Amino acid sequence: MIGAEWFSVEQSGEVTVVRIVDTREFDTDSYAQLQQNLAEFVASEQPRKLLVDLSNVYLCSTALIAGLIMAQKRIESCAGVMKLFGLSEVIMETLQRLKLAGTVLQVCTDEADARKAVETVGVSASGTFHDPVVESLQRPDLRPSPI
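RE: above sequence
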């Protein structure tokens, strides 16, 4: 299985959950391999609803960020959705400073919230993709206040 050393995969109906392994012992090469394996997994499996658990991620490397963005772009190209959860304060702060949280990458507080968020995602009768979380972020009156 792709990425077995770097993450585990759980399937629950239409929802795929990727759980990143404990990264405390990761070096630069490990993060680069994680990035590559995540991209390969998304390309080969093409999950429509992907949740990524980052609760075991301790440092926010550029390779990890690039891997998440690549995964997000591939999933979007297949009319899918990806939500992140389990972010430490450091990871969340990094994504916010880079202006990725809530724009390029969608972040939920925990797995339950992420599951709820993807349950409401789908294709409307007109054939257009519908994600209420993203749509709410596009409304100025509902945007979270900056840090």
